Amino acid sequence: MGSANGLVNVQSNQPLFSFGVITDVQYADIPDGRSFLGVPRYYRHSLLVLQRAVKKWNHRRPNFIMNFGDIIDGFCPKEQSLDAVKKLVMEFDNCNGPVYHMIGNHCLYNLPREKLLPLLRIHSHNDHAYYDFSPIPEYRFVILDGYDVSAIGWPKDHPKTLKALKFLNEKNPNSDKNSPNGLVDLERRFLMFNGAVGKDQLEWLDNVLSDATRLNQKVVVCCHLPLDPNASSREALLWNYDEVMEVLHRYSCVKVCLAGHDHKGGHSVDSHGIHHRVFEAALECPPGTDAFGCVDVFDDRLSLSGTDRMKSTEMIFCR
Ligand SMILES: Nc1ccn([C@@H]2O[C@H](COP(=O)(O)O)[C@@H](O)[C@H]2O)c(=O)n1
Ligand SMILES: O=P(O)(O)OC[C@H](O)CO
């Protein structure tokens, strides 16, 4: 690449920083199984995927690691849940650098928020799991809590549980609220294993994006649940993905949204030029295969180098 003075600008190939990614490890010390739709799941092997990821990250030395949620699986025997989360957090802590965790539905099947969040070192008020951080002044990471309004994770009589159950009853007539039977197209997201971003969190998001705009920061939004129908199955979407997208689209500082939950993965660019990348799950890697990656961050793009089942993706900013 040339420059005005004729010298080659080697700096442009140097990332500003980089971070490791993995999602849906869903570890459990139980035999292999299958998803509801018959996709094989390797509950013990997923720990080996994480261990190989840590080894590779420590060689490559990204600045931090992001775990997109579902650290252990809902089938983990409940008397083992606490120790299993601790064991997995310790595996992540073998990384040379900070680890940022997100919560997912499977985390919440195992432990209530007040137990889970301290273990995952998510410091937030009133047991909420949304937060933001700025690894360098030019970039801001915004982590959304997709189970803010949810029928899982809050106490049974909590206003958020009641609100979520009322919502599900209105939207999904099936007696099994995890069943999308009879729901059409985008309605198929109204399932108990999903959730919504609540009103306070939406306001907080708006304020963070306004602040990022003032500071001239580029924003990467992260959430266990996908936000764009073109990057995900209908059944995996955040209940109010449309409300969240409406806020994101007000701000040109938002460049990329990253997620987990939809195990096959996906990638899209939305109507406002925002990239949406849903990462492939560690849980569904047949023995000896992997799904994790390292993202190099530049001024004009994110570049994901994926291993095995995690597809490499160039996310060049469109706006
Ligand atoms: N198409 C589907 C998908 C799922 N369910 C229900 O959700 C539960 C969890 O699904 P997993 O794929 O994570 O095993 C499952 O046990 C079903 O109750 C469904 O009904 N239809
Ligand atoms: O979180 P799981 O394991 O129930 O899987 C969620 C599905 O992948 C959503 O389609």
UniProtKB/TrEMBL annotation:
It comes from Coffea canephora (Robusta coffee). InterPro entries: Calcineurin-like_PHP, Metallo-depent_PP-like, MPP_ADPRM. GO terms for molecular function: 2',3'-cyclic-nucleotide 2'-phosphodiesterase activity; ADP-ribose diphosphatase activity; CDP-glycerol diphosphatase activity; manganese ion binding. It is an enzyme of class 3 (hydrolase). This is Manganese-dependent ADP-ribose/CDP-alcohol diphosphatase. It catalyses: ADP-D-ribose + H2O = D-ribose 5-phosphate + AMP + 2 H(+); CDP-glycerol + H2O = sn-glycerol 3-phosphate + CMP + 2 H(+); CDP-choline + H2O = phosphocholine + CMP + 2 H(+). It holds the Pfam family Metallophos. The lineage of its organism: Eukaryota, Viridiplantae, Streptophyta, Embryophyta, Tracheophyta. Its EC number is 3.6.1.13, 3.6.1.16, 3.6.1.53. Its cofactor is Mg(2+).
